[in-house]
Design brief:
The protein has 258 residues and is of the alpha+beta class. Helix content is 27%, strand content 27%. The chain has a seven-stranded mixed beta barrel. Helix 4 packs parallel to helix 6. It is extended, with a radius of gyration of 26 Å. The mean pLDDT is 87.
C-alpha cells in the first residue's frame, strides 16, 4: 500500500508521527465508456478553452476566480494557509461513538506509526480501547479540511473522516409525514418482525453479489448467449394492507425457520 498523507497525531503535548493509508478498495467492475456506433473508447482530454489544444498535466495549475481574475495557487500556498493542519491531526476532544449520527461518517483510513512514534501510537490505541472513547479532531488532506474521529480496530487506529454539520442538507426540504397514523397493533406486529429478524452483526456474511452476477452476464453476452431476466414491478400497496403484509412476513419467516 502507498501512503497518501504523512504527518503526526497531536495528542495533548505528545506528537505521534503517522502515515495515512486508504482502508477501502472498490469492488465494482472497471467499465469503459464507448461510442455506440463502433465501440471505440471515449477519451477525455484537458483542453485549453482559448486555443483548443490539449494541455499536459505538468502545465496545469489551480486558480481561484476572484472578481473576474484568476489567482493561481501553488502546492506551497495550500500549505501556507494553515501549515499545522496539513501536517497534524489535532485531537481536540474525546467523545462517545453513539453521540455521532451515522450520516456524518464518510471515509475510513488506516493510520500506521512511523518508527519514532510506535510506543506513543500503542499508548493512544490502548487508552482509546480502555475508555471506549473516540478522538475527535481535524486535519487537511488534498487541499480540504476535514473533521475526523480516531478509533481502535484490533491493532490499528482507524481515522474516519466525518462531515461538518453545514454539509448536511435540511430535511425540511423533503415531504416527510409529521403526524403518526400508525395503530398500536401495527406497531406491535412491526416490532415483532424486527425481533424475529434480529441477529448478531457479522459483516463477513455479506458479499457484493451484484458484481458477480454482472460478470456472469458479461461472459454470457460474450458467448452470444441471450440472457432472460424476469420483469420486476414495484407494487404500491394501500395502507390498509399493512397488517396483512406484516402478518404474512411473520408467517413466512416462521415457515423458513421450521
Amino acid at each position: 500500500m502507498k501512503a497518501i498523507w504523512t504527518g503526526a497525531i497531536g495528542f495533548g503535548l505528545v506528537n505521534i508521527p503517522v502515515k495515512i493509508y486508504s482502508a477501502i478498495e472498490e469492488g465494482s467492475l472497471d467499465l469503459d465508456m464507448l461510442d455506440k456506433k463502433d465501440h471505440a473508447r471515449i477519451r477525455f482530454r484537458r483542453v485549453n478553452e482559448n486555443s483548443g489544444k490539449e494541455v499536459p498535466w505538468a502545465n496545469i495549475v489551480k486558480g481561484y476566480d476572484l472578481d473576474g481574475k484568476y489567482v493561481v495557487l501553488s502546492d506551497e500556498d495550500f500549505e501556507k494557509a494553515s501549515p499545522e493542519k496539513t501536517k497534524i491531526i489535532e485531537i481536540k476532544e474525546f467523545v462517545n461513538e453513539n453521540e455521532i449520527e451515522s450520516i456524518f461518517f464518510e471515509t475510513p483510513y488506516f493510520l500506521e506509526p512511523q518508527k519514532s512514534g510506535e510506543k506513543a501510537y500503542v499508548l493512544l490505541r490502548e487508552a482509546l480501547k480502555k475508555t471506549g472513547k473516540l478522538g475527535l479532531g481535524s486535519f487537511v488532506m488534498r487541499n480540504k479540511e476535514s473533521l475526523c474521529v480516531l478509533k481502535p480496530l484490533d491493532t490499528v487506529i482507524v481515522l474516519n473522516k466525518i462531515r461538518f454539520a453545514q454539509e448536511i442538507r435540511n430535511v425540511n426540504d423533503l415531504n416527510i409525514p409529521q403526524k403518526s397514523t400508525i395503530k398500536p397493533a401495527e406497531l406491535k406486529m412491526a416490532t415483532a418482525l424486527i425481533d424475529q429478524l434480529s441477529s448478531k452483526f457479522n459483516i463477513a456474511k455479506y458479499k457484493d453479489s451484484y458484481t458477480d452476477e454482472l460478470m456472469k452476464l458479461i461472459k454470457a453476452k460474450a458467448r452470444g448467449k441471450k440472457v432472460n431476466v424476469p420483469t420486476l414491478r414495484v407494487v404500491h400497496n394501500k395502507t390498509k394492507d399493512l397488517m396483512s403484509q406484516l402478518k404474512a412476513s411473520l408467517d413466512g419467516k416462521k415457515k423458513k425457520a421450521s
